[in-house]
Amino acid sequence: MKYQKICVLGLGYIGLPTACTFATHGIEVIGVDINAEIVQGLQNGHIHIFEPGLRSLVQNAIQSGKLRFQPTPEKVDAFIIAVPTPITPEKKADLAAVKAAAESIVPHLQRGNLVILESTSPPRTTCDIVAPILEKSGLKAGDDFLLAYSPERVLPGKILEEIIQNTRVIGGIDKPSASAGKELYSTFVKGDILLTNATTAEMVKLMENTYRDINIATANEFAHLADRFGVNAWEAIEIANRHPRVNILKPGPGVGGHCISVDPWFLVEAAPDISPLVHTAREVNDGQPGYVVDLMKRKLGALDGKKICALGLAYKADIDDLRESPAIEIVELLLKEKAAITVFEPFKPDGFHGNARAVDTLEDALQDCEIMLLLVAHHQFTGLDPHNVRQMTTATVAVDMCGGWQRQAWEAAGFQFLKLGQPSI
Ligand SMILES: NC(=O)c1ccc[n+]([C@@H]2O[C@H](COP(=O)([O-])OP(=O)(O)OC[C@H]3O[C@@H](n4cnc5c(N)ncnc54)[C@H](O)[C@@H]3O)[C@@H](O)[C@H]2O)c1
Q1: What pLDDT is attached to residue 425?
Q2: What percentage of the chain has pLDDT greater than the value 70?
Q3: For the chain, what are the domain ranges?
Q4: Nearest-angstrom CA–CA distance, 166 and 12
Q5: Of 97, 98, 109, 246, which sits most exposed with the smallest number of CB within 10 A?
Q6: 5-205 in CATH: which number?
Q7: What's the fold here for domain 288-419?
Q8: How far is the CA of 345 from the centre of ligand 1 (A)?
Q9: Rounded to whole angstroms, how far apart are CA atoms 142 and 121?
Q10: Ligand 1, residues 8, 14, 204: which to mutate, most atoms within 8 A of Cβ?
């Protein structure tokens, strides 16, 4: 195996599990992050993100003697870039971290090295942006070093399993680069490894998330239409999905996270004249928090002064990631309506920094409120027994904006019930 020592740049949700997995499979790994606190924390055994199983994986990797953390890269056989690629407020790709990471590799790049970009990136980033930066080393991409793009497609909450089992796509700037990528990832990947060119691999990742975004937008728009026509969207979707070639997703409070709410904009920015569907789906999903708050106002009256406890802030169930979370946007919109908000996010109790009361326990959240608002279908919330909740709260109204509760059960326990896609009250 050519790649005995590698450097992983960016130690977040993707980079840290990647670095650890390589290390526990015998590769010597230098984990690099520009955030000194993260590096120092990891050096002292503190893990800054939550992902099931990650704590023991990091411990195993460190104990194996194959993993160490530092703020800058050094000379290695291969570099993997897993830094953030967010969007700007204008919905443009912010590639500053990718560019900075590539720049930081330049002084250490050697003939025969392999560089892999894992960060989700707009089409042509590997060839048009990363390659020219790396070539400042005086080495030529393809001739002197190998360069590939390999998107990460793991599901938060299942990252450690999927990083090994998923099919992996590796797009090289040329065939030797793709094959080199395959050799490196074969260290631990058990799924198929598909080789293609770099721009195709970039497109694959963006197409996957855009496809999901459009399907979610369809479900959300169906929920709006169902509301207009007095139809229960959940029942209608369930029946429609009995058609052998239909699989409509579920409506929800919006789309968040680092990927699906961001990546389609890369396509819209790159080719606005030919991506109207992608653009509209983004707008539908981005409009969903506003729709949720309007629905509450329509059904429950003015929210001014109403005591609302918001259950969940993460962008999806059973994770601690609050990035781009529609739940947070809903809380902020409710604050603008002058509601008195208590927030409870069990996976990150101190994660909300706005003008709401954040509490550490469900008991504290429920104790003194009028409306319970379910924003994230964490198991802790979907498993609640409404009769028990009745004893824990002064609330008389239960609102479900993510499809985690059943109307019948909550009404049977004496609550008024409001649900996205199945409104009434
Ligand atoms: N989180 C996911 O589930 C997921 C899934 C698939 C793809 N991705 C993509 O993977 C990439 C990384 O995402 P993430 O969720 O791991 O991000 P993250 O924010 O959790 O972690 C990124 C880390 O990179 C560090 N960093 C920034 N600039 C750096 C630099 N120049 N050098 C070294 N470190 C630097 C940051 O300090 C941070 O710790 C993004 O492009 C994202 O879209 C993420």
Answers
A1: 63
A2: 99
A3: 5-205, 288-419
A4: 19
A5: 246
A6: 3.40.50.720
A7: Rossmann fold (3.40.50)
A8: 23
A9: 20
A10: 14
